[in-house]
Write a sequence for this structure.
């Protein structure tokens, strides 16, 4: 074998080895990222999860706001990536416990009765004004001594929480917004930031307040993290005084 042929053969072998190592590395990193995502969402391959949808505020009992439907699509992409299955139920038919399977609950307490139950049982330090009359504090979220008021189209707030408890230990993800746009914004934030959230909180519970800025102009795209209210939210209001 002359030098030219030997160099060609060695080059082919080196390329094959390098390509194989690169493929192995990429596959390993992809599988590790997938396992972390599945652990964070409580969605191992083939698992079942629950998506609890609300009703449109002011609409018919069975109606769903367009932005809440978009929130469903955002979260469905996450569920599909994890290789899990989803069952969609309305808030007034989800009469079951939590922890047995992962759950995504969308909508504030004015449009989602299950959100009301989750707030009372797992986030007792949060108060949400559910008045139907128009006034300054309508829809306001109170937690940790702060009041987050809704300014329609300008400032809209949403609670994004990961809550654990019950048998099985699978998490509940609560997206409780003042508007349907803020619900979608929370779903989008969860979709984009789940890796960072998993690194920071791991398997622990958390509760964040997010602000949607100028939704009349930007829709759900401009969302800011306002505060981590986990401790205050999990402390009963009477005990926090």
């Amino acid at each position: 074998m002359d030098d030219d042929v030997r160099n060609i053969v060695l080059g082919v072998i080196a390329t094959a080895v390098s390509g194989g190592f690169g493929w192995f590395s990429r596959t390993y990193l992809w599988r590790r990222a997938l396992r972390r995502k599945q652990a964070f969402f409580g969605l191992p391959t083939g698992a079942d999860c629950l998506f609890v949808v609300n009703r449109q505020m002011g609409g018919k009992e069975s109606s769903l706001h367009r932005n809440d439907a978009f929130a469903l699509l955002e979260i469905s992409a996450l569920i599909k990536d994890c290789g899990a299955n989803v069952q969609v139920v309305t808030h007034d038919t989800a009469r079951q416990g939590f922890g047995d399977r992962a759950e995504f609950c969308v909508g504030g307490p004015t449009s989602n009765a299950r959100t009301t139950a989750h707030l009372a049982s797992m986030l007792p330090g949060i108060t949400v004004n559910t008045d139907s009359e128009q006034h300054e504090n309508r829809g306001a979220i109170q937690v940790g001594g702060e009041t987050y008021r809704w300014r329609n189209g300008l400032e809209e707030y949403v609670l994004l929480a990961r809550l654990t408890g019950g048998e099985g230990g699978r998490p509940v993800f609560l997206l409780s917004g003042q508007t349907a746009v803020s619900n979608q914004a929370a779903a989008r934030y969860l979709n984009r930031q789940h890796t960072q959230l998993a690194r920071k909180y791991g398997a622990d519970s958390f509760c964040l307040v997010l602000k949607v800025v100028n939704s009349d102009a930007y829709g759900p795209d401009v969302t800011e993290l306002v505060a981590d209210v986990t401790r205050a939210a999990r402390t009963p209001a009477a005990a926090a005084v």
The longest strand covers residues 155-163. DSSP finds seven helices and ten strands in the chain. The chain has a mean pLDDT of 84.
